[in-house]
């Protein structure tokens, strides 16, 4: 398996495989913000909507390849607000159904954490469904801390309301400053 970073120039060449990956993931129940079945047009629109952020350097897209084919993907979205540039969100981590439980998600998460750290990020966060479309076990096994959740936050791909789980991970020491609460 190889992990590869796609920039704004490389993403269009991988578009067909990325469309296939997200459609298959959503169709298989992965909670990625879409209902099943996900149309090809919706998938194309999603991936192409990332091009400005990739060009601006505010998003990283990584893909996992096995035998040259994309079988997984994950992203880091950097915060652009002045008061939050120390943090980033991990989004859209997915692995094709035929390649799950083979360490691809773990490898993608490690590579996402590394890319974020190299960009000066000290705090990562993510949310996942607490339903069958989520990845609670993966994030907890990788040392992410549970921060809470919101009941009925989103619909899983089958339309079932699901609570979400919010996780965070410090990549370096937290910034020093006043804390409230």
Can you offer a commentary on this structure?
The mean pLDDT is 95. The chain has helices at 11-27, 40-49, 51-56, 104-118, 136-141, and strands at 2-6, 59-66, 69-78, 87-95, 123-129, 145-148, 154-155, 161-162, 164-170. It is globular and about 45 Å long. It starts with a strand and ends in an 11-residue tail after the last strand. It has a 7-stranded mixed sheet with strand order 1-2-3-4-5-9-6, with helices on both faces. Strands 7-8 form a two-stranded antiparallel sheet. It is of the alpha+beta class. Helix 1 (11-27) packs across helix 2 (40-49).
Features:
single chain, 181 residues, alpha+beta, two-stranded antiparallel ribbon, 5 helices, 30% strand
Summarize the structure.
The protein has helices spanning 11-27, 40-49, 51-56, 104-118, 136-141, and strands spanning 2-6, 59-66, 69-78, 87-95, 123-129, 145-148, 154-155, 161-162, 164-170. With 181 residues, it is of the alpha+beta class. The longest helix has 17 residues, at 11-27.
């Amino acid at each position: 398996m190889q992990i590869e970073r796609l920039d704004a120039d490389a993403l269009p060449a991988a578009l067909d495989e990325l469309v296939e990956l997200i459609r298959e993931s959503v169709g298989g129940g992965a909670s990625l913000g879409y209902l099943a079945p996900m149309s090809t047009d919706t998938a194309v629109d999603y991936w192409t909507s990332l091009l400005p952020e990739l060009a601006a350097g505010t998003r990283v897209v990584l893909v996992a390849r096995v035998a040259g084919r994309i079988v997984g993907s994950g992203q880091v979205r950097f915060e652009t607000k002045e008061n939050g540039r120390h943090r980033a969100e991990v989004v859209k981590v997915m692995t094709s159904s035929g390649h799950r439980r083979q360490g691809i998600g773990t490898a993608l998460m490690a590579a996402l954490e590394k890319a974020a750290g190299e960009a000066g990020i000290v705090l990562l966060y993510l949310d996942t469904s607490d339903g069958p479309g989520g990845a609670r076990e993966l994030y907890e096994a990788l040392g992410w801390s549970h921060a809470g959740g919101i009941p009925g936050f989103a619909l899983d791909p089958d339309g079932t309301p699901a609570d979400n789980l919010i996780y965070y991970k410090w990549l370096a020491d937290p910034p020093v400053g006043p804390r409230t609460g």
